[in-house]
């Protein structure tokens, strides 16, 4: 018998299928059980439909089907479909309707309509592999879609309500003074790493990490995170999760923001879909045994705020420029930078030459002056010590500054009060809905609460900064006391080893804390001292000073009278120091 020959009509036409799989949380993505079930459903569907061949897979791991998936792989699938990636008749295969969408019904229907307009089909594996080419392909199709959608939304809302109920119970227990914790079984636990919990006694105990945590806060009152990290590394402090690695700056930054050090527990909200947790802004105090006081915690944050606006130290390993961050160009107000050159002497030894120049010009040679001066630390220190500080610190000026600071503090405190009232009102609404068992509505208000807490957090920062400024002015000495304190500080520094890094850093921190600045005319060497306001970008905004003769930065006094030098300065763009009418404040243009 002759073999039969297959014709083109006998060979089934291969259609394309595209797989979409999704899990809502990253934990589910790691567990893989949900993805494995969807993969098994896909393979069974392909066996049921031999005329289809799998073309491509799309997976959203850790994205909710309530809309977030449209920002991920599913959104990419829709974009490619709209661009004509697949021919008409291509089928999107999904395990169930809940994997496809948990959006409101209108949005889910619009997505199905969009697929139909693109010429694409869809098939849900749990519908026995039925392929839907349009919503009206069968009279019962719309009803099946509505039923499946309702089930998917119920599952979504039940899951959200369980999560909301669990977090609400935890929050209620903590506020009631209960300890709903378990003993630590690994480095990861729902309480601070420097604590261990004993279920038999229902109490916390500190472990071997507590000592360096307290030290980190003590150091942070005067040092930045990088310097604190270096000190801890020198003491052999290692990372918590990986003891083979040294402590990192990120660990210190996170630690300094953690209210658990004074016993408080920050409340978090789990974001929908991706499993991340964000702070709500609320702190429950008295949950943990405190390592430090709340006052010390606030003091550290005040120091951080001051460093952020350049009122604290700028730490470097050597600090060759003792006045780092305190010297400013008279022409453009930018910070003056330090540089060092090395030259070989005839005998083979090395000579070091230190210079200062305009930081703006150093970045762009066409901007500001290219003049530079030899760096003379001794001249600056001498001038600082001889300056008439008793005339500078007069009571009237300080009282005016204090009054302005108090007014600003009152203003930002009023803003904070409004923000607090808004947060409280939303919390009360959520509590009312929870009592009425309207969990879905209470969950929707969580987003409003988060925004309100964000506004409150911003207001708290403004209040903290205003309080710091007012407190500094209140504590600021006046008259002879201020002059004596400054001269003593300088004398004490001169009596120590000036080459020692720790001494230089401490003196530089003191300059920043006092707000002492020096404005230098680089062409002539003239400079004037005072206290000043420095902007966030590092430029000097204002120099407060009494009328006094300008000093010379290591130049021959005769050079100040040099007509050529004067003409160079007049021709230069910008302006030097512009005094106010009372002769006490120098403003810049």
What does this structure look like?
This protein is of the alpha+beta class and 589 residues long. Helix content is 45%, strand content 17%. The chain folds into four domains: 15-158, Resolvase, N-terminal catalytic domain (Rossmann fold, 3-Layer(aba) Sandwich); 195-308, Putative Large Serine Recombinase, Chain B, Domain 2 (Hect, E3 ligase catalytic domain fold); 327-390 and 481-587, no CATH class; 395-473. It is built from 18 helices and 19 strands. The strands form five sheets. Strands 10, 14, 15, 16, 17, 18 and 19 form a seven-stranded mixed beta sheet that branches. It has a five-stranded mixed beta sheet with strand order 2-1-3-4-5, sandwiched between helices. It has a three-stranded antiparallel beta sheet with strand order 11-12-13. α7 (210-220) crosses α8, α12 packs antiparallel against α16 (479-495) and α14 (395-435) packs antiparallel against α15. The radius of gyration is 35 Å and the shape is elongated.
Short account of what is shown:
With 589 residues, this protein is of the alpha+beta class. 45% of the residues lie in helices and 17% in strands. The longest helix is centred in the last third of the chain and has 41 residues, at 395-435.
